[in-house]
């Protein structure tokens, strides 16, 4: 998994960006350890480009600095994919560590779902008009997951808050590490050691053993993401807290209930992402094909 990957400084140096090329704008998101700020990046021979810059609050803390460097290496190892937020480069000389990322104009999928929930309160027709947009986004996230799996990378925090929507409406997987806590204030997290864990998105094997994250645990989280979409951004398992409590419920066959705004077929797909035994759980490719075969599963 990514947590065991080492930091390759030579690889990082090849992607160095001079921090003087950045002009900062508004704050995009804030978390416990860092924030993301909108900025423009001046390019020597091209037009300026809008970017998102992830910075640490306290850059003197070695562990968070290491985490950000590791995140950068993971993104570099991952390579380019249309459904994964691109890494433009990194500033590490003469100041705090800064990750320069592709900017996603429409913000997070979670915010989009919250907006849609508010709009649809008075006009349910909005939902059926937007159905295909969300189906497409879910297929795109699956493609991103397939790319990660084929590069033997595990994201560990697939959730609506970590899916960003770019200008053309393309969904992209973001937050390979630290800024997992960037835009949603820690309502779903529980402190365990020094780590903040997205318990309600975690597969049972990850809840039981923190080190056990695989491509199949990402698929479990993807199932919870499907549920978040159908529930217009509601929080899973309201009122249920603690890793042990969630694990026990899952062990006893309890699952998130069927949302009102999806088909039984779509719910069956979620349940197949939530197979207790990861060996019988679907892989991202199969999930993507199922979504493509059934483009009317939401709302
Ligand atoms: N918030 C966090 N990361 C972002 C990004 N890359 N683009 C826009 N908003 C963000």
From TrEMBL:
<dbReference type="GO" id="GO:0004714">
    <property type="term" value="F:transmembrane receptor protein tyrosine kinase activity"/>
</dbReference>
<dbReference type="InterPro" id="IPR017441">
    <property type="entry name" value="Protein_kinase_ATP_BS"/>
</dbReference>
<dbReference type="Pfam" id="PF07714">
    <property type="entry name" value="PK_Tyr_Ser-Thr"/>
</dbReference>
<protein>
    <submittedName>
        <fullName>Mast/stem cell growth factor receptor Kit-like</fullName>
    </submittedName>
</protein>
<dbReference type="GO" id="GO:0005886">
    <property type="term" value="C:plasma membrane"/>
</dbReference>
<keyword id="KW-0829">Tyrosine-protein kinase</keyword>
<dbReference type="GO" id="GO:0005524">
    <property type="term" value="F:ATP binding"/>
</dbReference>
<dbReference type="InterPro" id="IPR001245">
    <property type="entry name" value="Ser-Thr/Tyr_kinase_cat_dom"/>
</dbReference>
<dbReference type="InterPro" id="IPR011009">
    <property type="entry name" value="Kinase-like_dom_sf"/>
</dbReference>
<keyword id="KW-0808">Transferase</keyword>
<dbReference type="InterPro" id="IPR020635">
    <property type="entry name" value="Tyr_kinase_cat_dom"/>
</dbReference>
<feature type="binding site">
    <location>
        <position position="55"/>
    </location>
    <ligand>
        <name>ATP</name>
    </ligand>
</feature>
<keyword id="KW-0418">Kinase</keyword>
<keyword id="KW-0067">ATP-binding</keyword>
<dbReference type="InterPro" id="IPR000719">
    <property type="entry name" value="Prot_kinase_dom"/>
</dbReference>
<keyword id="KW-0547">Nucleotide-binding</keyword>
<dbReference type="GO" id="GO:0043235">
    <property type="term" value="C:receptor complex"/>
</dbReference>
<dbReference type="InterPro" id="IPR050122">
    <property type="entry name" value="RTK"/>
</dbReference>
<dbReference type="InterPro" id="IPR008266">
    <property type="entry name" value="Tyr_kinase_AS"/>
</dbReference>
<dbReference type="GO" id="GO:0007169">
    <property type="term" value="P:cell surface receptor protein tyrosine kinase signaling pathway"/>
</dbReference>
<feature type="domain" description="Protein kinase">
    <location>
        <begin position="22"/>
        <end position="299"/>
    </location>
</feature>
């Amino acid at each position: 998994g990514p947590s065991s990957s080492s930091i390759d400084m030579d690889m990082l140096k090849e992607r160095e960006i001079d921090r003087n090329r950045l002009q900062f704008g508004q704050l995009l998101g804030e978390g416990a350890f860092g924030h993301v700020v909108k900025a423009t990046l001046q390019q020597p021979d091209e037009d300026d480009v809008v970017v998102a810059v992830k910075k640490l609050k306290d850059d003197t803390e070695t562990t968070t600095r290491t985490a950000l460097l590791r995140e950068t290496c993971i993104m570099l190892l991952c390579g380019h994919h249309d459904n994964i937020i691109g890494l433009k480069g990194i500033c590490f000389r003469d100041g705090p560590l800064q990750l320069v990322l592709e900017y996603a104009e429409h913000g997070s999928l979670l915010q989009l779902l919250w907006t849609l929930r508010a709009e649809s309160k008075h006009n349910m027709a909005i939902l059926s008009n937007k159905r295909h947009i969300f189906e497409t986004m879910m297929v795109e996230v699956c493609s991103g997951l397939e790319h990660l799996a084929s590069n033997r990378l595990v994201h560990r925090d697939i959730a609506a808050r970590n899916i960003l929507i770019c200008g053309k409406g393309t969904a992209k997987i973001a937050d390979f590490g630290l800024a997992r806590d960037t835009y949603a204030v820690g309502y779903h997290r529980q402190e365990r050691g020094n780590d903040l864990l997205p318990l309600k998105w975690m597969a049972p094997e990850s809840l039981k053993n923190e080190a056990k994250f695989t491509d199949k645990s990402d698929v479990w989280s993807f199932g919870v993401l499907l549920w978040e979409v159908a529930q217009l951004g509601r929080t899973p398992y309201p009122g249920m807290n603690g890793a042990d409590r969630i694990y026990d419920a899952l062990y006893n066959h309890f699952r998130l209930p069927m949302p009102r705004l999806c088909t039984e077929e779509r719910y069956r797909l979620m349940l197949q992402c939530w197979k207790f035994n990861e060996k019988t759980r679907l892989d991202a490719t199969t999930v993507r094909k199922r979504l493509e075969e059934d483009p009317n599963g939401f709302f």
